[in-house]
Amino acid sequence: MKGFNCTILGYDVYPSPQFEIGKYVSLNELLQKSDIISLHCPLMSETHYLVNSETISQMKDGVMIINTSRGGLVDTKAVIEGIKSGKIGYLGIDIYEQEADLFFRDLSDTIIQDDDFQLLQSFPNVVVTAHQAFFTRNALQNIAETTIANITDLELGKDCSNVVKE
C-alpha cells in the first residue's frame, strides 16, 4: 500500500517497535479512518472475530476488507450482513473459518453444504481464494528447506526443533 502513496495505519494487541512504514493507532481509529483493512495477525483470543458486527459498524461505508491470515479473525455472518448493507464494499479472503471441508479437494461433483460460503461466493464484490497468497516461491523454498533439515536431524539422531509434541 505504501507504493500507492497510502497512509498506513496499524493496530496490534502487541505493538512492535519494528513497525516503521506507518503509525500505530487505536483499533477504533483504524476502523474509522481506513478505506482498506488488511488483516495480518495470528488467531488468538484477542483477535478471534476481530471483524464482527460491532467493529464493522465503526468502519467507513464501502470499506475493503482483505484477510490472508486466519479464518477465525472474521465473523462470516457479520461480514455477509455488512456486504448486503453496503457497509463492506469489497471482501477478499484467502482463508475461510470452516475451510477444512472446502479447500484442497476436488468438489466439482459435490453440493457445498456451507450456505455462508456459497453466499459469499455469490457476491460480485467478493473474491475467495484457497490459500493462494501463501504459495510464493520463498514460502515453498522455506518449507522445502525446513522439511529436509528436519528429516536430516531425525535421521542423524539430532534433536529436531520442529517435532510436534503431544
What keywords describe this structure?
166 residues, 6 strands, Rossmann fold, 5 helices, alpha/beta, four-stranded parallel beta sheet, two-stranded parallel ribbon
Largest sheet: 4 strands, parallel
Terminal CA distance reads: 41 Å
CATH class of the largest domain: Alpha Beta
CATH architecture grouping of the largest domain? 3-Layer(aba) Sandwich
Q: Return residue spans where pLDDT drops below 50 for at least 5 consecutive residues.
A: none
Strand numbers in spatial order across the main sheet: 3-4-5-6
State the fourth-level CATH superfamily of the largest domain: NAD(P)-binding Rossmann-like Domain
> What count of structural domains?
2
Please name the CATH topology of the largest domain: Rossmann fold
Share of residues in helices = 25-40%
Total helices: the number is 5
Helix vs. strand class:
alpha/beta
Could you tell me the mean pLDDT?
Answer: 86
Order of helices and strands: EEHEHEHEHEH
Q: What fraction of residues sit in β-strands?
A: 5-15%
The strand count comes to 6
Radius of gyration over alpha carbons? 19 Å
General shape = globular
